[in-house]
Amino acid sequence: MMLNLILAAIQSILQVMVVVLFGFILTRAGYFSTDKQKWLSRLNLVFFTPCLLFSNIASVISFQQLLAYWPIPVFYMCFASLSFACAHIISRIFRLETAYRRFVLACVMFSNTNSLPIAVITSLAVSEAGKVLFWGADDNQQAVAARGISYALFYAIFGNLLRWSYGYSLLQRWEEDDEDDDTSTVADYTDRRDQLSSPRLEYGSMRSSSVTSSTASSMANVDTRRTSSVTLEGNQGHLTPITTKQKPNETTNLLSFPTLPSDDLEASSNNAATHEPKGTIPHTGYIVVRTAKKINKYMTPPLYAALLALVVGLIPPLKHLMFDKSSFLYPCLTSAIQNCGRAAVPLILVCLGAQLTDIYHSPQNNQVKYRPVATAISTRMFLMPLLVIPIVLTFVAYGEQWSAIAADPVFSVMMIILGCTPTAINLVQISQVTGCFENEMLRVLFWSYGVICVPIFTLIVFLALNIVDKFV
Hints:
globular, Na+/H+ antiporter like fold, mainly alpha, 3 domains, 21 helices, single chain, two-stranded antiparallel ribbon
């Protein structure tokens, strides 16, 4: 049984790493330049990933499943809270900078809830080791795989909602990272301007070009964006606005959604603000448009897709119209969305392989901070399993009186797998779009999936199978 388990785990990991290898080969062959990688990642973010989220979420969610699967959101909130607390505690113990605390928090909170768990449960269902997952005498391998995928997708709904809102904001650049709350004068800013332009504040992989373009944009819109005063930097020879807005933190940012870094959207928002009527009572239409623009500023395309999927999935007529195979829209619209969604994960993995190639040959590797990388990997891969497995074991032993699915061996194994998986692969997609922590994120994913995942995850799955074999 142990040999079958090892083979199943290795096969599921190789499904991921082989596609990454394809990206590495394509980059070495000259098909993937840095600009093409950025363009493809952004296209994936605004189109293919929303298609994936919509098709996966809307097809599985319903009010009946919300009631029957109530332990899944409870487990997710429990694991997310533990990850949040552990990331903060460990980051402070290792005295990481504020920005790197956010990086570690994102890596620990948001794990792989799609590709790896589904690959593992599919491999286990058809292996000899998967016989312990049968629930009743009439169970079979296809039913085991179907239930495991259903649990994983339902769990991923909550992870995707939080990842593409709060997680996106964690991986953005915060200009106030090293500023005090009470610092707003020109003299204080002058004392800090060298620090703001130093590589230390770029946090390893924060692109200096993004800072330069941001400065140029600020200079072009200095009249409309100025909040207090400006100072002239001798080295740069341009005006830089001083902002005095309140410093955000992880808790307050959890209550709001981030924006996509789009200069066009920002410019249109500024123009709308410039033409705002003054001294008159706004019409209802204007209020609606202004409110919509404010909401749009805090949304992302994947988050729009997830929310739309919830609406479609929870309204039976809409779900029947979209996902019933006998309906008119299923073969022409729904199938098209599903086909586009299937391209999201391979594109992420190919871009990951391409980015690993660039980072490997980059002369700036010495700028990467390895302490945050090691902190994120150790917390995600070693500390979290020590907390997740006892929680699931307790539910297996005492939870059947509250929920029938506590008696399903597949459910217990999937909760352990989902709580112990490595960092989510699509976090590198977010880092690539925002331009922050790219190198660090790539190293986290490389070490997590390429080195640590096979032995550690094999042990985790083995423990999960033994738990359900003895207690379920």
